[in-house]
Amino acid sequence: MLACTRCGLSATRTNAVPGTGPCPAEIMIVGEAPGFNEDAQGKPFVGQAGKLLDTLLAGIGLRREDVYITNVLKCRPPQNRDPMPNEVEACANYLNWQLKLVEPKVVIVLGRHALERLLPGHGPISRVHGQMVDRAGVNYVAVYHPAAALHNGSLVNDLQADFLSVRRYLDQVLAPPPPPEPEPPAPPAPPQQLNLI
Q1: pLDDT tens digits for 126-154?
Q2: Is the distance from CB of 120 to CB of 85 less than 8 angstroms?
Q3: What is the DSSP string of 9-25?
Q4: Residue 186 CB contacts under 8 Å (≥ 6 apart), including other chains
Q5: Model's pTM, two decimal places?
Q6: What is the residue extent of each domain of the chain?
Q7: What pLDDT is stored for residue 188 in this prediction?
Q8: Cβ neighbours around 149 below 10 Å, total
Q9: Domain 8-173 classification at class level
Q10: Which pLDDT belongs to residue 112?
């Protein structure tokens, strides 16, 4: 992946940004694409959106080290433009491979581009954010992208509420199964008569 040349972004990137975090991981976060800081450092979500993501994670009792973080695209589009369909397609196998390798129980989908890739046809982010969807045994929760909230302050409250919903879903999905019911006691044996003669 680090030396990939499947699309034209390979010619303009400084670093490919595959993802970071534990593997396997119960929680995976998928964003859109690396930005300037991510391209420079080769790590996802290290700029301002990453700082906001860290704050949102801390607000629900998680740390960056607890989750696997990646993007739909592994290379930065010039001037942080939207991903092109051929670029998304070029990275599709990498993301599919990561989903299989990480084996998440919950995927937090950041923004509309990740939503279109992971849950095609599910609906616009403005309608489905904060809702959990089960697909093939994996639970997906779409939320607004932290960068969108940085550009449009009116989304911050929605994003915080979405992460509180994520916490509730995590509590449901990751809760240990209840202990098995104890076996009912066996009925007492009927009394026996002793024959003394």
Answers
A1: 999 999 999 989 999 999 999 999 999 99
A2: no
A3: GGGT-SS----BS-SS-
A4: none
A5: 0.86
A6: 8-173
A7: 78
A8: 21
A9: alpha beta
A10: 93
